[in-house]
Structure formats: C-alpha cells, structure tokens
Amino acid sequence: MEQQIRFCTSADGTRVAYATYSDHTEHPLLILRGFGYSQEGCWQEPHSRGFLETLGKNRMLVTYDRRGVGGSQRDVTDLSEEAEVADFAAVADAASLRQFDILSFHMTGATYASSHPERVSRLVLFGPYVRSNETGFLQAVERTTNLIRTEWGMARRLLASYVFPNGPVELQRWYSTMLRESVSPEVAAALLETEAAQDIDYTDTLSRIQAPTLVLHQRAGRMVSLSAGQQAAACIPSSRFLPLDAGRDLPGPELAELIIGFFDEERGARPEAEPDESAVNLVAILFTDIADSTALTQRLGDAKAQELVRAHNAIVREALRAHNGSEIKHTGDGIMASFPSASAALDCAIGIQRAVAEQHDKAHRDAPLQVHIGVNAGEPVAEESDLFGTAVQLARRVCDHAEGGEILASDVVRQLAAGKGFLFADRGEVVLRGFEDAVRLYEVKWRDARAV
Description:
452 residues, alpha/beta, seven-stranded mixed sheet
C-alpha cells in the first residue's frame, strides 16, 4: 500500500493536502485526524502506519491534513468550524466520494454527518463532547495554550501526554516531534482556542446525526472527560459508547480491527467477528428513597413506618409496570430500577411523585410519605440480575442529593429526553460524594409536567 498525496481547494481558496492509499473503490472511508497530525508523519510511524494499512485493506481510504497543518496551507487565519467543514467537503468531492464512512478525531466529522446525512453511511467519533465548557476542559485548554505561546517544546510534551497518557514513550516522542514539524505554535494555540470557544454547544448537531455511530473514548488522559463522551453518545439517536482501556486506544491494527468491525456490521463482511461485550447500549437507572426514614421510624414506631414502606413499594411497582421499568432490587428504604429509555424513567418518576402526593392527601396526613428520586443513564455492568458500575453509583448519589418530593436527573438524562416535553430546572454543578468531577444536575418539574 502506498500513500499518494494530492491537493484540492476549499471554498475560501485554502489549499488542502489529502491522500489516498490503494486502488480500492468500494466502502470508502474518510478520516479526519485530530490536533496537529500530519499525513506524512503518520505514514512514517510504525503504529500509525499499521493502523492505516489495516483500515485500508479492503476499502478506499482517504485522509487529509487540516488547514494550517502538514502539507495543507499553513498561512491561514480562518480556523473556524465552518472553514473546517468546507475543507472536509472539498476533500470528499475531490476524492469522488458520494456515500462513505467517517472516522473522526475532531467534532467537524460530527458536524458534517449532521448536515449531510445522505452522504454518510456510518460514523465513528473519537473523544467527542457536547459543550466546550465541560468541567476541566476550558481550564486545560487555557493552561496548554499559554504554555504553547511561551514554551512550545514543553507544551508539545504535555500534549503528547494527553494523547498517549499511558505511553509508550516512543509514541509520545514521535507525536511531539510531529507537532514541531507539522504546525506552528501560533496555529496550534489558535486551533485549541477555536475548539474551546465557550459558546460551542453540539446538542442539536449530535441529535441530527442519522448514521449509526460508534463513540470511542479513552478512559483517562484526554482533555475531554469520559463522562463528556458518554453525554455526546447519549445525544446521538443511533449510537453505541465504547470506553478504551490503556493499550487498546493506540493507533495500531487492534484499534483498526475494532473500527472495521463496526463499519462492516450491516454489510455482513465479517460474520466471524464476535460482538464486543464492552460496547453496550445506554440504560436509564432510577433510585427512589423515602425521605427521613430513620426519623419517621423513631417518631411513628416500627409498625406505622412499615406501612409507609409498603405504600411506597406499591406505588413504585405500579409505576414500573406502567412505564416498562424493571425492578433491580429493594434497598431497604427505596427501590432501584432500570429502563430502556430516559423518557420512560422520567415518566415513571413523575408518576411516582404524583401518586405519593395523592396518597398523602387521601390517607396519610398524620404520617406524610415523601420520596426523593434520582435518575441517571449510562452503561452499567449486568451480573446476577443486578447492575453495577459508575452509572449506577452516580444515580444513587443523584438520588441522595434530592430533597423529599424532588426528582433530580443528570445532564445525560436531560439530553436524552430533549424535546420530549419534560420541564427541567438547572441546579448547577454539584460535587457528589465519591466523584472527583462536578456533575450538572437538573430538577424535573413534575407538578407542571405533562400527564403520564
């Protein structure tokens, strides 16, 4: 396989260098690389070359250098996303790609797929995010851009540690060297600042993507957190989220085979491939808890308090039956349940709170039952009829943070339920027990919500 460099012109006249790698014409794949990558630099490095050669075995493979980088025009001032999308479109047209797959290490791939659904067959996004103001992202960019402008060599080493957090050292050195050769510090700083503009919000963009999408994300090391990648996946209608452990995220044949498996699913080209057990669909998780249960027991006595527990259980289980929920376990003072969608979980939560309020008005004025509810969505681990993992732990902590009579939901849930008629009030970012990063929570205004 040989790399053949060509050039095309973007809408504003900028020269863009692109490359093809074989004579294949079937199953075209267009790759949009991330920060500072050059085609020639990637072709010279063994891991990266193996990645490209594996991807291009049986398909047409096209890559290109972003404006300001590598063989593309260096003296550019417009680094906006609109300009980047125009470059992407120019390369697709120059390579005569009518319908194709996309592998994108940059949000431009998501924007193009959203605005050109008729041309995109399948999409793989590496490290996407919804908003640039995710916790820690802007701060990391600010620190890095300041360092780029004052000490480019040290900044390159820092960027290499973000891209390859677990090494190996030779890859970090290669990446640092490639940055030095492929992009100026002025352009590097400007590219990062453009990506971190505080008013960027990709919620609508991601929600309009029609192509089946695989979201890949390193578990550690990147400026964009793992939870931000999960939120991005939650916005895409037909998506799958797959976190990558150390080693599995390196640009080499193993990662390429994983990506090819996703691209070839519908074509049936790889019937021998086993499904990846770590790639799971998002599940909505709901916790209920009786407010002040210990104090109620002391005030009312065991028998009367147990009546409230039974009333709670009856209300919750009836709501679960009505909204396609599955009871996972009883927690003593509450119930944990799972749902196939965020909307079903929220409808159930609203139904529970309304039934509790009605029950209080009719029968238990002297012993008020109040329930607080937390809802999260993620990719829990299923084992022995139970669910485990970060998504479950976060749902539990969200419930703990709610007051009696409240429904609190994570931002992932809010995004999944966007446009479904629910009313949310932003409660801001909260540091929940056991979690280092702050989490943005939303109160579900169930008294004013639609009938369920």
